[in-house]
Write a structure and sequence with these properties.
- The complex is a heterodimer of chains A (about 110) and B (about 110).
- Chain A has about 110 residues and is mostly beta strands.
- Chain A is about 0% helix and about 55% strand.
- In chain A, strands 2, 4, 5, 9, 10 and 11 form a 6-stranded mixed sheet that branches. A 5-stranded antiparallel sheet of chain A has the order 1-3-8-7-6, with no helix packed on it.
- In chain A, a hairpin with a 4-residue loop joins strand 7 (about 60-65) and strand 8.
- The termini of chain A are far apart.
- Chain B has about 110 residues and is mainly β.
- Helices cover about 0% and strands about 50% of the residues of chain B.
- In chain B, strands 2, 4, 5, 6, 9, 10 and 11 form a 7-stranded mixed sheet that branches. Chain B has a 4-stranded antiparallel sheet with strand order 1-3-8-7, with no helix packed on it.
- Chain B starts with a strand and ends with a strand.
- The chains are: A mainly beta (about 110), B mainly beta (about 110).
- The interface of A and B includes residues 41, 44, 99 and 100 of A.
Chain lengths: ~110, ~110
Amino acid sequence: DQQVKQNSPSLSVQEGRISILNCDYTNSMFDYFLWYKKYPAEGPTFLISISSIKDKNEDGRFTVFLNKSAKHLSLHIVPSQPGDSAVYFCAASGQTSYDKVIFGPGTSLSVIP
Amino acid sequence: DGGITQSPKYLFRKEGQNVTLSCEQNLNHDAMYWYRQDPGQGLRLIYYSQIVNDFQKGDIAEGYSVSREKKESFPLTVTSAQKNPTAFYLCATAGVGINTDTQYFGPGTRLTVL
């Protein structure tokens, strides 16, 4: 049973527009959420995270929103650039590193020039 | 240079042979992880270790074995019992403690079993 879901396997966006990647989770004990970006044949790169005590975290063009009541988070990329084309993984974990990090299946983002 | 090293980047083996994938880190991280990625799928946890000389099975440990004799090293052996070993293997590390769940990944090893 998937605890972290990314229901859109792929997404295409025009350069300069906003990209919105969605993620849903089922375990209410998750306390910490992360987004990773992955290019083909490379390891994932940490992008941005958010703790459950916040509902928004911003880092440059990347913003993550968390709606705990809906068990939903989203990653916004504004403006989208061709170099953002990659697979994005949503991940979630409990309060400490002793809890496993659970990854979603990923969403492949294509930013069209 | 600080980081996580996985070698080799590409590995080919004949069916029925055991193969060991290397993962070395100099980040002084306590926790280390092995994941497997298959086309169109997310990352699936094989084994993880929070401390030297201790490790736990992940979600798909069957057909794999690990050791953690040193903090810096967490090699993964893909045994002949693993039914579908061809995949992209990723090693990751993390600090240990509250809100240090951010995992840092190595470049990965692509294993192809012929």
